[in-house]
Amino acid sequence: MAYPKQFRYTKEHEWVDAKDGNATIGITDYAQHELGDVVFVELPATGTAFTAGKTFGSVESVKAVSDIYAPASGEVIEANAALQNKPELINTDPHGEGWLIKVKLANPAELTSLMDAAGYEAYIEEKKKEASA
Amino acid sequence: MRYLPKSPAERQEMLAAIGINSIEELFSSIPEPYRLKKPLDLPGPLSETELIQYFQARAAENSAGYTSFLGAGVYNHLRSVVTDTILQRGEFLTSYTPYQAEISQGTLQAIFEFQTLMCQLTGQEVANASMYDGSTATTEAVLMAERLTGRRRVLVARSVHPEYRDVLRTYAKNSGLKIEEIPYSAAGRVDSNELKTALRDDVCALVVQSPNFFGALENLAPLADAAHASGALLVTAIAEALSLGVVKSPTEADIVAMEAQSFGLAPSYGGPFAGVVAAREKFVRQMPGRLAGQTTDQDGRRGFVLTLATREQHIRREKATSNICTNQALCALAATVHLALLGKEGIREMAEQNLAKAQYTLEELEKIPGIKRTFKAPFFNEFTVELPRSVKIVNAELLKDKIVGPFVLGAAYSELSKHALVCVTETATRGEIERFAGCVRRALEQPL
Question: Which CATH topology does B67-75+343-445 take?
Answer without folding.
Answer: Aspartate Aminotransferase, domain 1 (3.90.1150)
